[in-house]
Amino acid sequence: MDGSVPADSEEVEEGITEWRTVSDPKQAGWIFSQELLRKNKDLKRLCLSVDIRQDIREQDQAFVAFYNRDTVQWASPLYCKLQGDVATGSGVDRHMMSTVIFKLMSGFHFNLGGAAVTRIFEGEPDHLIPSVSDDLLSNDMFAVAGRMMGHSFLHHGPSFPGLSPAVIHILFGGSMETTPVTVRDCPDLDIRDAVTTLDGESELKESIHQLCLSWNLPAPNATNRKRLAEKLLLHAVIEQTWSQINQLRKGLQETGVWPLLIHRRDVIPVLFPRESDAQVTPQVILDCIVWPSSLTVIFESYDEEEEDEECGTEDVCRVSGYLKTFIENASAAELRSLVKFWIGWELPAREMKVEIVEATFPTALTCFEKLRLPRHHRAYATFRQDLCACIAHHSSGFGCR
């Protein structure tokens, strides 16, 4: 397999020592990314622009068009713009990186290969493998996916969770013989049934004979059935997706993160975490929150300057308590939406600030990682209703003033 490293990455590799020696793999990734971005700070900046006034299909096409380019220095300075939204700054960058990874997980809304939603990866959580679609391969969509993953990593965005350990093993140079493939890695249920049958003692169906012959394997019998089960599974999961994995690797290499991943194998789970490890829990969010430290309400006005007015402890404690209750009882999807509304992506920040304000609805200053909650709520039910209404529309804007 091709393990070549782009020239700009070689320079970073030679110039950095700290990322090699720091014990924490997340910190190693952060140091490497910061140094690579610093070395490329004088290059012409990349502009990722998406018009949120367009339909979802056109927005998805804009993302793919941006990443479906060759000879791009992906570690160049990045400028992100949401046309149709007044938001600017780092909050927009976070929103873009979060959207990119979300699209890789959920699919793009355009027809490529006969489906209304084009999925780059398929299968169950923590066992995702590249799609076997020839249309995706010929359109370099797996290189696009690799660039998206590496680019998000460079800008400290969300990682891509749930990729099959078998695919990760091959992606980073593991041998076919030692691939940790399991039946859960196979998204085709018919092949799963065939593998399970071959690996057991049940009578072999004619369809299994035909499947083996179609893949140039010998006809199954009592002595070779278990070995055929292994061969069928390896072919379905790895051999059929070999070109896709190579293309994915190429996209990752182009972003400049490859030296880090090769020399610090403990960073690979940071880039490709288990989906269960990537889930946002109530306690993770609560641990990041900076609660109001003073009894001050900020009065918002679109026409006048903001001014402070003393507010009783009751308002601050009551509304803060409502938020805590919401977080403790929210679904996983609601938690992701809340964090994305709050700071621009689903990955909680180290400090997520809360302010109690004189306003009608909750708003967010994503660039400052700040959530502003109205003081007027006197019942949790109405607070929850308003907050859910706002976070449900995070994809169409930031809720900023």
Provide the CATH top-level class of the largest domain. Alpha Beta
Instruction: Quote the beta fraction.
Output: 5-15%
Q: What sequence of helices (H) and strands (E) makes up the elements?
A: HHHEHEHEEHHHHHHHHHHHEEEHHEEEH
What is the mean predicted local confidence, pLDDT? 86
Helix content: 40-55%
How big is the Rg?
24 Å
Shape: globular
* N→C terminal distance: 51 Å
What does this structure look like?
By secondary structure, this protein is of the alpha/beta class. The chain has three domains: 7-162 and 242-274, Hect, E3 ligase catalytic domain fold; 183-237, no CATH class; 282-396, Hect, E3 ligase catalytic fold. It is 47% helix and 10% strand. It has 19 helices and ten strands. It has helices at 7-15, 18-21, 25-39, 56-67, 90-106, 134-138, 141-154, 165-171, 189-198, 206-214, 225-237, 242-254, 258-263, 268-271, 275-278, 282-288, 313-329, 332-343, 380-391; strands at 46-51, 78-83, 121-122, 129-130, 289-290, 296-299, 307-310, 352-358, 363-365, 370-374. Strands 5, 6, 7, 8, 9 and 10 form a six-stranded mixed beta sheet that branches. Strands 1-2 form a two-stranded parallel ribbon. The protein has a two-stranded antiparallel sheet with strand order 3-4. Strand 9 and strand 10 (370-374) form a beta hairpin. Helix 7 (141-154) packs parallel to helix 12 (242-254) and helix 9 (189-198) packs antiparallel against helix 11. The radius of gyration is 24 Å and the shape is globular.
